What does this fold into?
Amino acid sequence: FCQMMRRPPRSTQSRSSAASDVYKRQELPEEKTALKGWGDWAGPNIVNKPVDPEVEKRLKELRIEGLKKKRKDGQLDNVIVNESRNKYVTKYLVQDLPHQYQNTQQYDFMNSRPLGPEWNTLNEFTNMTKPKVSTKAVSYTHLR
It folds into this structure.
């Protein structure tokens, strides 16, 4: 079994052909191993210009100033106004103007008045805070 698996010795002819193959490979021009397009995405012979750090800093400051002008809190120091809409608060906001008011200024004026007893008389306070509909307490008796 071992004799069958053993390779026969190579002839001198096969050695010479292997050596000639090596010489043929060396004579061929070298192929590029990199893929086309790698390393020159902007085009051939493009050189990146060095950017002056002072100019880059000034451009960044101008961009920031432009963004600040668009915001509500751009002119206010040490203030950040959250301009995003809170979806949990929207259910408490008034969608339509109530019928007794002609414009939003009237509605805002009426809601900006303080309701507490510190700012109003006792009668005014009770009139402003009492419910519109009043129900009387009733006692029920069960008949058997």
Notes: Helices lie at 2-5, 12-27, 53-70, 104-112, 122-129. The chain has a mean pLDDT of 77. The two ends are 110 Å apart (CA to CA). Residues 53-70 form the longest helix (18 residues).
